[in-house]
Amino acid sequence: MHRLPPYRLRRSARAKYLRLLIRPEGIEVVAPDGLPESTVQAFVRQHSGWAQAKLAEMQARLAKLRQGQAERFPAEGGSVPLEGRETPLFIEETGGSRIRVSLEDQGLRLILPRTCGGERDRYVRDALFGWMKRRLPGRVTEFVQRHGPLHGLYPRQLRIKSMRTRWGSCGPANDVNLNWLLGLAPLSVLEYVVVHELCHIRHRNHSRDFWELVAAHLPDWRQERQWLKAHGGGLIQRFDPAFR
User: Fold this and answer.
1) I need a surface site. Which of 20, 57, 143, 225 has the fewest CB within 10 A?
2) Are 181 and 199 in contact (CB under 8 A)?
3) How many CB atoms lie within 10 A of CB 241?
4) In Å, how far from its chain's centre is CA 70?
5) Residues ≥6 apart with Cβ < 8 Å to 83
6) pLDDT at 69
7) 19 near 222, Cβ under 8 Å?
8) pLDDT in tens, 30-75
9) Integer Cα distance of 195 and 210 in angstroms
10) Looking at residues 1-29, what average pLDDT do you find?
11) 223 compared with 94, residue with greater pLDDT
12) What is the pLDDT of residue 131?
C-alpha cells in the first residue's frame, strides 16, 4: 500500500468530484464539501505514486530554470516539442538567403543563410514562428469545426501571434488570437485553448456559466489547463527571447 504523502486539502462547494493538483509548493486536493476525510485519504493514497513523481519533475525543472541550466533554445542536435512530442531538430546553413523549414521522417529541418552569424538564435526562432503561423491554422480550424456548431460559437477571424502574457484572447468582434507556442504543446492542450476562447464569444468573463460551457465541450478541461500551468512556463523560457 502506498504511503500517504503530505497534501493541502481545499474544500469546494462547486466541486463534483475529487481532483489532484500538482503545484511547485506541493500537492493540493480539491474535494466536494461533506466528503469524508477517509475517502480523501484513500484517493490520495491511490494516486500518491503519480502525484509525487509529477511533483519531483516540476520542482527539478523549476530548479534548473532558476540556475540557468535548462535548455532555453533549440540547438543543432537538440529537439523541439512539436505537438508535445520532442522532435529532433536539424539545422543547416547554406550560402543562399532563403529560410526554409520542413518536417521530415527524421525530424524538423531548418535551412538558414550562413550569414546569420551571431543572430542565429533569432533566425531559428523567427523561422519556427513563421512555420507555425502556416501550420497551426489548419489544426485550429479542425477544432473550430468540431466545437463551433455545438453552441453556435464562430470566430470572425483566427490569428496566430507571438504573445508573451497570454495563450489566447477573444476580441470584442470575436477575433480569436492564439499563441504560436501552442503548436509545441500537445494537441489536447491546443484544443482546450481554442475551446476556451470560443466560449468567450458567449461569455466575456470567467463566470460559472463560462466554465460550464467549457465543460460542455471538454469535460476534462482541467487536465489541459493544469498542463499549461505545469509546462507553459518552460515553453516560454525555451523559446521567448524576452527571457534571455
Assistant:
1) 57
2) no
3) 13
4) 18
5) 183, 184, 185, 186, 187, 190
6) 46
7) yes
8) 889 989 999 999 999 988 888 888 788 767 755 654 554 444 456 5
9) 11
10) 79
11) 223
12) 93
Positive or negative: CA dihedral 148, 172, 185, 212: negative
Indicate whether 169 pLDDT > 50.
yes
Amino acid at 240: D
Cell of 58: 516540476
